[in-house]
Design goal:
The chain is an alpha/beta fold. The chain has helices at 2-29, 70-81, 108-115, 130-146, 180-194; strands at residues 35-43, 54-58, 87-90, 124-126, 150-151, 155-161, 164-170, 199-203, 223-228, 257-261, 264-268, 286-294. It folds into 2 domains: 1-32; 34-294, Metallo-dependent phosphatases (Purple Acid Phosphatase, chain A, domain 2), CATH 3.60.21. Helix 3 links the parallel strand 3 and strand 4 (124-126). Helix 2 packs parallel to helix 3 (108-115) and helix 3 (108-115) packs across helix 4 (130-146).
Length: 297
């Protein structure tokens, strides 16, 4: 009996040590990491002039959240610039609020200084996220614009790339959408009245907008790709169990990475900061580098 009690004690002790070590790693170590992930997305009907286009996608900075301090943000800017991007997109949730939502963990003027300096051949573009809207979207927009970046809030930016037009369509956050049909119609109208031409890349904070712009609600036959964040990749990935919590109405479906639904390619980045819980486990903060390739027929 003593032998079995000893084995039980060792087993419980080992489990306890493993849990404590995992908590330490997920709170102290992984949130301080910053990795560059590289993905190549083959897209049907992509304009040949856009073959090889390099996009850096950064989302969910949550400035001031666990380990997202001034040094981390300046490192992020330098690391992103080191990828020599054609385009940089910032996909929302710049801020992190204390409980109650009236005070930020990093003041906006500090955020502006710390995110300043991103460079890309064709520009740096941003959309707002739900936390930005909850705090004050106009103040956050002003802070991001003060850093030198263009906000696209239900707006289109047309780029001239290799003598070909590429349209970046930045959309409002999903929580500001009241009616799928009305939103789809408004977005189609925006595209039609813009009068431009060329492939469209949609920038949107949440992947949950995808069904609102595809299928019967399709906004344009020229839409080639959607880039999103919001999910944080779940922040935690557990062997066998996967990602226990995904802030999406579609659960695991839109959690992370390259997804194709109703003929439209989408890439969801896991972002940089943390929200609700200050942990990351096997889902490190990332700068996503996405290379577009024309899919051969």
């Amino acid at each position: 009996m003593a032998f079995f009690r000893h084995r039980k004690y060792l087993l419980l002790s080992s489990i306890g040590i493993f849990i404590l070590a995992s908590l330490f790693y997920s709170y102290v170590i992984e949130p301080r990491r910053l990795v560059v992930t590289e993905s190549t997305i083959e897209i049907e009907k992509l304009d040949p002039a856009l073959d090889g286009l390099n996009i850096v996608a950064i989302s969910d900075l949550h400035c001031g959240s666990n380990a997202v301090n001034a040094e981390k943000l300046r490192d992020l800017v330098a690391l992103a610039n080191g990828q020599n991007p054609d385009i940089v997109v910032l996909l929302g949730d710049f801020v992190s609020e204390y409980e109650g939502g009236t005070k930020l963990r990093m003041p906006l003027d500090e955020m502006t200084q710390n995110i300043r300096g991103l460079k890309a051949r064709y520009g740096v573009f941003a959309v707002m996220g739900n936390h930005d809207d909850w705090y004050d979207s106009e103040l956050v927009k002003n802070a991001v614009q003060a850093a030198g970046y263009r906000i696209l809030d239900d707006e289109i930016a047309t780029l001239d790339i290799n003598n070909t037009k590429l349209r970046l369509l930045g959309l409002r956050d999903h929580l500001r959408i009241k009616s799928w049909k009305a939103f789809s119609e408004q977005t189609r109208h925006l595209i039609d009245t813009d009068g431009g031409s060329g492939d469209i890349i949609v920038l949107e904070h949440s992947p949950d907008v995808l069904p609102m712009i595809t299928g019967e609600l399709s906004i344009s036959p020229d839409t080639r790709l959607m880039l999103a964040g919001h999910t944080h990749g779940g922040q935690v990935w557990l062997p066998i169990l996967g990602r226990p919590i995904i802030p999406s109405s579609y659960g695991q479906k839109y959690a992370y990475g390259h997804i194709k639904v109703q003929g439209l390619d989408m890439f969801v980045t896991s972002g940089v900061g943390t929200s609700i819980l200050p942990f990351r486990f096997l889902v490190p903060p990332e700068i996503a580098v996405i290379t577009l390739k024309r899919k051969a027929n």
